[in-house]
Design goal:
alpha/beta, two-stranded antiparallel ribbon, nine-stranded mixed β-sheet
Length: about 350
């Protein structure tokens, strides 16, 4: 297991940006009214913000970053590390992070690279950024995290279409005194089939056949360029390995649950998240949700939830437990101390 602690890094601010277009699951005409209501009750998603065609994660993440620079009065010339966590890159190459460096006017001596993770991406991104900052002495870093997932969801696939929304986020990190952070990171590639887009990569190049939508064994209709989700496998993984590793992590670092102010999970779906919450024994008042309004926004879900649900409560020191889990399979937890985080309201463009 990869468990480690880092001190001396702080979160100065977090900003989030979502598309203006809102789609309601109560209007999803593939299901009847009774089925729609049951779906919403189970997954917890009423509405989702959906990106228009040709608008990308880069656009939303950069808009969030610009808002963050404005609110924190950050001198962007001081940022020497920029990491972009996404599974919906603008291009195969070059790296989206490098494009963002230019688009945001960051200096050319800024290190920039992508991390190709989804649901666990925010916890991994924080760990990588903090590790580099501590080992190099870089004083300011920008962590961009987000995904435009809806473009990969087939309308005729009830397992994915009503679940996912789009968002981009930006987190400003700075070297500081104190602030102990602990991380616990895991991976299990044997579960690659659980959440996957089969074609379009180098293993299965795009062909005409890739575009054909077919009815699958699960009863849903999609192409091989659409996201496939094995709900039962993901559910079983999430309610077994995630709480087990979380409890082990908290026990090993001697964390007092009473001193943890908020437990922010990846917004997978309500049933799954509530099962995890109960297994790790957290008061529901400490567990915020953004699912109802934004859906599952992949890598962006943790920072988006922090901004939308906790933004006005982070102006004082807080202890935050973060947990991301899903595609890969990959999962990671972080217990971080904050000391005043600027969180402007969620931006819509």
């Amino acid at each position: 297991m990869a468990r480690f602690s880092i001190s001396g890094v702080s979160v100065s601010g977090i900003a989030a940006c979502v598309p203006k277009q809102v789609i309601s699951n109560y209007d999803y005409d593939l299901l009847n009214d009774k089925e729609r209501r049951l779906l919403v009750k189970t997954i917890g998603v009423e509405t989702r913000h959906v990106a228009p065609k040709y608008t990308t994660t880069l656009d939303y993440a950069c808009a969030a970053a610009e808002k963050l620079f404005e609110e924190t009065n950050c001198d962007r010339s001081e940022i020497k590390l920029e990491i972009f966590v996404t599974q919906s890159r603008d291009f195969y190459l070059p790296s989206t992070a490098v494009i963002a460096q230019d688009k945001l006017g960051l200096p050319q001596d800024c290190m920039a690279f992508d991390i190709g993770l989804g649901c666990s991406g925010y916890t991994y991104g924080l760990s990588v950024a903090a590790s580099i900052m501590k080992s190099t002495g870089i004083k300011k870093a920008l962590l961009l995290v987000g995904d435009v997932s809806t473009v990969t969801c087939a309308y005729n696939d009830t397992s994915t279409y009503p679940l996912f929304g789009d968002a981009g986020t930006a987190t400003l990190l700075e070297l500081s005194e104190g602030n102990q952070w602990s991380f616990d990171l895991h991976s299990d590639g044997s579960g690659e089939e659980a959440i996957k887009i089969p074609h379009g990569g180098m293993r299965h190049l795009l062909t005409e056949e890739s575009l054909i939508e077919r009815k699958r064994e699960d009863g849903n209709t999609r192409s091989d360029l659409h996201l496939q989700l094995d709900g039962l496998s993901v559910f079983n993984f999430s309610i077994t390995k995630v709480p087990k590793s979380l409890n082990s992590f908290l026990d090993e670092i001697n964390a007092d649950r009473e001193l943890i102010d908020f437990f922010v999970m990846h917004q997978a779906n309500k049933l799954m998240n509530e099962t995890i919450r109960k297994k790790v024994k957290f008061d529901p008042m400490k567990v915020p949700y953004s699912l109802s309004q934004y859906g599952n926004t992949s890598s962006a879900s943790i920072p988006l939830t922090i901004v939308s649900e906790l933004g006005n409560q982070l102006d004082v020191p807080r202890n935050l437990l973060l947990s991301g889990f899903g595609v890969g399979l990959s999962w990671g937890h972080a217990l971080i101390e904050t000391n005043g985080v600027i969180c402007p309201k969620v931006l819509e463009i």
